[in-house]
Write a structure and sequence with these properties.
heterodimer, A: mainly alpha, two-stranded antiparallel sheet, B: alpha+beta, 3-stranded antiparallel sheet, 5 helices, 21% helix, NADH_UbQ_OxRdtase_su1_CS (chain A), ubiquinone (chain A)
Chain lengths: 352, 154
């Protein structure tokens, strides 16, 4: 019994890992297609039908390029940088509940790699470590532009981590738990008589806007992609990287986008819950699978949203970025915490 | 800036709606090897030296095309038709060699207008192809003369 449970856990972990990598791979393709469609072009269409083999071609290209290490670079750290970025990016998806439970016989299998009651803290810890990959890579290159890019990345991530944490605290006041599964389960309750529609976005719209802005900054996406701003810093922290080192940095960014989308869907958009989920009269396992499909639909929408914003908004200037982070988002998120706490107190006092 | 402008978000949503509309627009791209752009009716392409209805070369090497050519791209050597070659050349005089330097040609079509024998034409369905060496751009009779019709009339 113990062994079967372990095997099932291992299978789920491998599945999540594989899906993460697959989605990140095809995000690179989707990014190019979305860019092309928004710019009235066609996009990659040569490799395979509709260009679907394009990520494969890109990977082959990156693997066969020369792996170049600058003469005065710190060789160990130069290799460790992209590896660390990739490692931390892949670790974060472990605590995200990708579905409710499957009941086979008398076994209850939650569709989640690890269920811990500090899920959000774990994600924040791992995502915060991700900046080390960029920092180490930029420093080890022994190039002042790379170093500037790395410093920008570090200061930007620290600045936006604060506002992000505050926006999450308002959410935690409502949910009363740090467990990702717990938060997802709460959102399956009724709202306006619709089951599975008690999503946090209706209670925390401001918190969500702060969170998504910070998520853009944390994943180094446009309009906050200052660490790799090619007009000012050549290529930023990955200037000196070639071949798969560069590939890992770019790939880690897409894995981060996937994780950020999954976290946003779980925290604010009901996770695996979808409207009318318990009114359909379907068996539990079918509802679970439909819920997983719904969650991936939400995740794909947010990945698309990341790309949509990228091809719409111009990049911020660095002082504008810092102003937005420290003077607007942090005060706003603190205000949001105070208002949420006040509303909860009022409700407990007068509307019980 | 008023309050809604300082909020940034309305402007961002406006921008997002603009890019979203472009997402569904018809693409201007012509996927070249599969699709080709329709040529204009008056477009002038690669030269051809025509044969008449009996498969004989129309060109008599009169040199009017070379005179008319503003880029001086055409050179030719005239020769006299021998006995027994009546099936090859239409008149007593013919072009032993006929060369057009495609690096000089400006595709103006004046050669076509000058030709009294309706021998040279600029085809409207064929582009001069790209080549790798400069001497490959001097087109001789082997590339210019229309190939013999497969079923030659008796």
């Amino acid at each position: 019994m113990e062994l079967t449970l372990l095997l099932i856990k291992a299978a789920i972990i491998f599945a999540i890992f594989g899906i993460t990598l697959l989605i990140a791979t095809y995000s690179t393709y989707a990014e190019r297609k979305v860019a092309a469609f928004i710019q009235d072009r066609v996009g990659p269409n040569r490799a395979g039908p509709f260009g679907l083999a394009q990520p494969l071609a890109d990977a082959v290209k990156l693997f066969f390029k020369e792996e170049f290490v600058p003469a005065n670079a710190n060789k160990f750290l130069f290799v460790a940088g992209p590896s660390l970025a990739m490692l931390t990016a892949c670790m974060a998806s472990a605590v995200i509940p990708f579905g409710n439970t499957l009941i086979i016989g008398d076994m209850v299998i939650p569709l989640q790699a690890i269920e811990v009651n500090i899920g959000i803290l774990y994600i924040f810890g791992v995502v915060a470590l991700g900046v080390y990959g960029i920092m180490i890579g930029g420093w080890a290159s022994n190039n002042k532009f790379s170093l500037l890019g790395a410093i920008r990345a570090a200061s930007q991530n620290i600045s936006y981590e604060l506002a992000m944490g505050m926006s999450i605290i308002a959410l935690l006041l409502l949910s009363g738990t740090l467990s990702m599964r717990g938060i997802a389960e709460q959102q399956g309750a009724d709202l306006f008589g619709i089951s599975g529609f008690n999503w946090n976005i209706f209670y925390q719209p401001v918190g969500f806007i702060i969170f998504i802005t910070c998520a853009f900054a944390e994943t180094n996406r446009v309009p906050f992609d200052l660490p790799e701003c090619e007009t000012e810093l050549i290529g930023g922290y990955h200037t000196e990287y070639s071949s798969m080192g560069m590939g890992l940095y770019l790939f880690a960014e897409y894995v981060n986008i996937f994780v950020a989308s999954a976290v946003m869907s779980t925290l604010y958009f009901g996770g695996y819950n979808f409207p009318f989920m318990y009114d359909l009269g379907l068996p539990h396992n079918v509802v679970t699978i439909l819920g997983t499909v719904a969650l991936f639909g939400k995740i794909f929408f947010f990945i698309f949203f990341f790309m949509w914003v990228r091809w719409t908004l111009p990049r911020f200037r660095y002082d504008q970025l810092m102003n937005l982070g420290w003077k607007i988002l942090i005060p706003l998120s603190i205000l949001n915490v105070i208002l949420t706490a006040g509303a909860i107190l009022l409700k407990e006092e007068y509307f019980r | 800036m008023n309050f809604s402008e300082r909020m940034y978000l309305p402007a961002i949503f406006q921008g997002l709606s603009i890019t979203m509309r472009h997402f569904f627009k018809k693409k201007a791209t012509i996927k070249y090897p599969e699709e080709t752009r329709p040529m204009s009716a008056v477009w002038r392409g690669l030269h051809v030296l025509k044969r008449d209805e009996q498969g004989r070369e129309r060109c008599t090497a009169c040199g009017l095309c070379a005179v008319a050519c503003p880029a001086e791209a055409i050179t030719m050597v005239a020769g006299e038709r021998k006995r027994g070659e009546e099936g090859l050349y239409r008149e007593e005089k013919y072009a032993v060699s006929y060369e057009i330097n495609m690096l000089r040609c400006i595709f103006c079509g004046l050669c076509e207008e000058a030709c009294p024998k309706a021998a040279i034409f600029l085809q409207n369905d064929k582009t001069a192809p790209a080549r790798y060496e400069r001497d490959e751009f001097i087109y001789g009779k082997d590339r210019l003369v229309e190939p013999m019709p497969t079923s030659a009339p008796n």
